[in-house]
Amino acid sequence: MKLQNLEGFYRWHSKVYEITRSIFLAGRTEAVDLLALQDGDRIIDWGCGTGLNFPLLLRKKVDLVGIDDSASMLGRAREKFPEIELVQGDMSHYPFPEQADKAICTYSLSMVDPWKETIRNICRALKPTGRLVILDFGQLTGPLKLLAPFFSAWLKLHGVNPGMSLSSLLPKYFHGLKIRSLHRGYSFLALAEFPVLQPSPTRPPDRPFRVVSQRFIFPPGGSRPILSFDFTLNR
Q1: Does the N terminus or the C terminus of the chain have fewer Cβ atoms within 10 A?
Q2: In the prediction, which pLDDT does 197 show?
Q3: Domain assignment present for 215
Q4: Model pLDDT, residue 13
Q5: What is the pTM (predicted TM-score) of this model?
Q6: Per-residue pLDDT in tens (0 to 9) along the chain, 235 residues
Q7: How far is CA 231 from CA 107, 204, 205, 227, in A?
Q8: Domain interval for residue 47
């Protein structure tokens, strides 16, 4: 779902999110267990929503940060967890000033169009020993496969893209990867470890030159002064 549409979608859904999502967004406990939390860990919950993961993450004494695009969802989270640092920002580009030990992303990656850029940004925000756990919708298998077209249509109706090819993308950014299916393909868990840090590309200068000084030159003969500029090359 495009970022400009997310806030409108969640403005209403934030009021009933915790009641409805706790029913069909299962697997959070398993996802948090995969993080192998330790006291003192810095954790970023990407797409934290109203904070459904927070009680599980706070079972350890961690430094927890939640980021989400939706002000409405963060408003609900702030009411319940005023002590948690919450950031409203574009998950695909938000620059965290301090790298985290671990990161989690539950049922949120599939909601944003720039999900590939978001994974790249998560990688940048992790320490070299970092760990990322992703819990999201999968592809139905076994007897439930007959329901796959209806399941996919239902997800897309709610702005979800269930076709993420993480198995080919995540190895570009992490040295270790394990993915397993849950609940007959209804969802999946991905554990990615040891990020291959991607340095931010150097932004080319907007202009090849910049002004370093300026002065008026008074030509002989009393004509009008001329404004002169000294330039240097941008590098």
Answers
A1: C
A2: 73
A3: no
A4: 47
A5: 0.73
A6: 444 444 454 444 444 445 444 544 678 999 999 999 999 999 999 999 999 999 999 999 999 999 999 888 899 999 999 999 999 999 999 999 999 999 999 998 988 888 999 999 999 999 999 999 999 988 777 776 776 677 676 666 666 776 678 888 999 999 999 999 887 777 899 999 999 875 545 454 555 666 556 565 666 766 666 656 666 666 5
A7: 52, 18, 14, 13
A8: 3-195
The backbone region for 51, taken as left when phi is positive above 0, alpha when psi lies in -120 to 50, beta otherwise, is left
Does 204 reside within a domain?
A: no
Nearest 5°: phi and psi at 223? -75, 170
Query: What's the number of domains the chain is made of?
Result: 1
| Domain-embedded: residue 149 | yes
> Would you say residue 71 lies in a domain?
yes
- Give the model confidence (pLDDT) of 36-58 as tens digits: 999 999 999 999 999 999 999 99
Distances in Å between the Cα of 99 and the Cα atoms of 83, 121, 229 are: 20, 11, 43
CATH number at residue 179: 3.40.50.150
Which H or E run includes 73? helix 71-80
Q: Which residue, 233, 235, 183, 174, is CA-closest to 209? A: 233
51 CB-contact burial (10 Å; exposed 0-12 / middle 13-18 / buried 19+): buried
Contact 48, 67 (CB under 8 A): yes
